[in-house]
Design goal:
heterotrimer, A alpha+beta (228), B mainly alpha (444), C mainly alpha (85), A: alpha+beta, Alpha-Beta Plaits, 4-stranded mixed beta sheet, two-stranded antiparallel sheet, globular, B: 444 residues, mainly alpha, 0% strand
Chain lengths: 228, 444, 85
């Protein structure tokens, strides 16, 4: 059984936010508008957080691309009252828009603030949208799904072409778009995969690991050359 | 069984028999509040929760605060009614029904707050069809349902003899009262059955009530968020609920004492005892608050301290310190000496506590959400007219339900007052005699 | 007192049965709901311990309610008048 995970190399990340834009385009993430953005309601499944060092404000900024960390012990699925969010056997934490009642408990429980809410009906049918991803109505929670529709597409294509599905065919939009190749995606359960090898790197760390959420997005800290 | 008909009992039946202009003015005012709430909610229902001040990361605000607050007020009924009844405190007699009615009405309003908070209220049946018991919200649903059932039963059972009085004395609503009186004629057997049933419910209602507010607190403490994930939340919320409940009860008592002229029944001694209870709860509340914040401060975990300083000296400090003023300083000043101006002091303290406890819920819900662990762009939660309107409408709806109840049933238990006058004086005297030194009598 | 036509005893009794029966159904409905949620969590292989744990506490409480309602209806309404002391 595959265990899909991601490694993000912070030494390579330039903070260009190509991953953010690619994610929004791929997943029909609505642009909420300037008014709503000012009120703090931007929806950004992949979000780049900037962390400034407390001692050296001017010189050291860290860019942390934060998708949903697809935890293996997700605090969000525990508290959902209606089975609208759950962890599937391949490790992806799914979100069922049609079941969600909008109580926002999962949003309150997520220590990474990876979940977003549709405060209004932000989305409308429009040309250029990705037909593989459903549009979300107002009042439901949404979040990064590791572009799960791409996995389904790749599997179906392999089935149609009567061949084995190759894990390398399944790449989320953010990993595909990153110009610095900072995002590596793959099967963590396969010890030979690039992502599994990078996850074992001495530079690897997990965000808020002490909380016990077991996130499957692993970060590589900046190396010696970065002036730390 | 002939009861001496006390002329003062006519006061208790008067609101049911007659309706004055004061009632209509009250209904008009409450209807305005409810109208504001209804308009606010309909705007929210059609446009979405975006019309509130909620945003990323503060996903919960007024509505969840109100939920905790109103469910907290519901603990008035349980404490006064059940505990005082079980501990045979005779002064509870004129108070129990008022307290029980508060509980029953306010639970509906409290549960309604969660429904108002949902992004998809049209899907609320999903909780029934597809509920997950791992979620504290389902614990809430079950516990609050049990509490509602228990409170309604515990309100209704002691009402049966009074409904029988209404059935026999009044000419209107004969069928209604006859049905609800369940054929009560006051026989020894019926009284025994009823007293036993009431005693069972009194014992049952207390652990259910404790579970209700514990489970409401678990909605917060079962998450991993700083200043929420604390083991003290269960008892803290229960203490706070009883605290706010007594304050709410006192205010209600004073309002209806004035409106219906109940000074014969609700005497300064009742307010004095309730005031003393309120003082004890204020001290208890302060103890829990102190323990909670000292623990956070001493451990100095960075995430906890962000929230701590936000409350102590940061953007939330006006709310935090007002809370301390209302919940601790004012009650201490007002309630330590209650011999003079009892009702006035107790009223002032109770009003302060009601505001202070609402602020306490607010100070628990919003600051933790405002300071996410990861470096997020921060927002400031500012409620809109929709949230104020919903709050006003909720208070108005509760008050209207309560007012309507007093038009159908006596707000002070007639038969329990009679029982107090006829039986209890003797019973208490006998009981006290058994405490005094003497030979232990052989049981026959 | 002006003359009031007596309210039919049979009507009252029938309405009382409906009233108490309704209360019974309501409490029974809650028990059925809890059982439904246990079955759902078992079928979906979700944390069944939570459902069973809650039901061990909640269902007996609801059963006690039903018992109290029945006891009062029996003792006060159905057999109350017979035992006039």
């Amino acid at each position: 059984m595959a265990l899909w995970g991601m490694v993000i190399d912070l030494d390579r990340c330039t903070g260009c936010q190509a991953c953010v834009m690619a994610c929004k385009a791929e997943n029909n993430v609505p642009a909420v508008g300037a008014e709503e953005a000012k009120r703090g309601r931007v929806i950004s499944w992949m979000q780049v957080l900037t962390e400034t060092d407390e001692e050296h404000h001017a010189s050291k900024t860290r860019f942390i691309p934060r998708p949903c960390l697809q935890c293996d012990d997700p605090p969000c699925t525990k508290v959902c009252p209606v089975y609208a969010t759950y962890r599937n056997p391949e490790g992806i934490v799914a979100q069922i828009y049609d079941r969600c009642i909008g109580c926002r408990f999962c949003m309150a429980a997520c220590p990474y603030n990876a979940k977003y809410f549709n405060w209004f009906s932000y989305q409308k049918e429009a040309p250029g949208q990705n037909p593989d991803v459903s549009l979300r109505e107002k009042g439901v929670v949404e979040k990064c799904t590791f572009c799960h529709h791409r996995l389904q597409n790749a599997r179906e294509r392999a089935l149609a072409e009567k061949r084995q599905f190759d894990p390398a065919e399944y790449v989320p939009a953010c990993a595909e778009a990153c110009p610095a190749k900072a995002i590596v995606f793959g099967d963590l359960a396969d010890p030979a995969s690039e992502v599994a090898q990078l996850a074992r790197s001495p530079r690897a760390f997990k965000l808020q690991e002490e909380l016990g959420t077991k996130p499957k997005v692993i970060y590589l800290t900046e190396g010696e050359g970065s002036g730390s | 069984m002939a009861h001496e008909r006390d002329d003062h009992e006519d006061i208790l039946l008067a609101p049911i028999e007659r309706t004055g202009p004061g009632f209509y003015w009250a209904v008009a005012f409450l209807s305005l509040l409810i109208l504001w709430g209804a308009i606010a909610y309909s705007v929210q229902y059609t446009q979405g929760l975006g019309v509130t001040g909620l945003h990323q990361p503060v996903g919960w605000g007024f509505y969840v605060t109100n939920f905790v607050f109103f469910i907290g007020i519901s603990h008035a009924g349980t404490l006064i009614s059940a505990i005082l009844r079980l501990s045979k405190a005779e002064w509870r007699r004129p108070i129990t029904r008022m307290a029980e009615v508060i509980t029953c009405m306010v639970i509906f309003i409290g549960a309604g707050q969660i429904l108002v908070d949902l992004g998809r209220p049209d899907r609320m049946m999903n909780v029934l069809h597809h509920g997950r018991y791992q979620s504290p919200l389902l614990w809430d649903a079950t516990s609050i349902s049990a509490y509602l059932m228990a409170s309604l039963t515990y309100l209704y059972l002691p009402m049966i003899p009074d409904i029988a009085i209404l059935r026999d004395r009044l000419s209107k609503r004969k069928l209604f009262y006859s049905v609800l009186a369940l054929g009560w004629t006051g026989t020894e057997h019926q009284q025994r059955v009823l007293n036993r049933a009431i005693a069972i419910m009194a014992v049952l209602v207390i652990p259910i009530a404790v579970s209700v507010h514990s489970v409401v607190s678990f909605v917060f403490s079962m998450t991993l968020q700083p200043a929420w994930h604390s083991t003290i939340f269960g008892p803290y919320f229960v203490v706070g609920a009883i605290f706010s409940g007594i304050a709410g009860l006192i205010v209600t008592m004073i309002i209806f004492r004035k409106a219906y002229g109940l000074h014969y029944y609700l005497k300064p001694i009742h307010f004095r005892y309730l005031g003393q209870l309120l003082l004890i709860m204020a001290l208890l509340w302060f103890y829990f608050t102190f323990a909670e914040y000292l623990t956070g401060y001493y451990g100095a975990e960075p995430e906890e301290m962000k929230v701590f300083w936000a409350k102590f000296s940061g953007p939330f400090s006006p709310f935090f310190w007002s809370m301390v003023l209302c919940n601790f300083v004012i009650p201490l000043l007002c309630l330590t000496s209650l011999r003079q101006h009892t009702v006035g002091k107790v009223l002032f303290a109770s009003l302060a506590i009601i505001i202070g406890m609402w602020l306490e819920r607010f100070v628990i819900v919003v600051p933790t959400l405002s300071y996410p662990r990861l470096p997020f762009p921060e927002g400031v939660y500012a409620p809109t007219w929709v949230e104020w309107g919903e709050t006003a409408g909720s208070v108005g709806l509760f008050a209207l339900f309560y007012l309507l109840f007093t038009k159908f049933f006596p707000i002070i238990s007639i038969w329990e007052m009679r029982e107090g006058r006829e039986k209890s004086v003797r019973e208490v005297e006998e009981r006290i005699l058994t405490y005094l030194p003497g030979e232990v009598a052989e049981k026959p | 007192m002006e003359y009031q036509p007596p309210v039919s005893d049979r009507l009252i009794r029938r309405l009382q049965w409906i009233w108490v029966g309704g209360a019974f159904l309501l409490v029974g409905g809650f028990i059925a709901w809890i059982v439904h949620l246990i079955v759902a969590s078992w079928r979906l292989d979700d944390v069944i311990q939570a459902s069973v744990g809650i039901s061990i506490v909640a269902i007996p409480i609801f059963l006690v309610f039903m018992g109290v309602i029945f006891y009062v209806f029996w003792g006060v309404t159905l057999h109350g008048r017979k035992r006039e002391d």
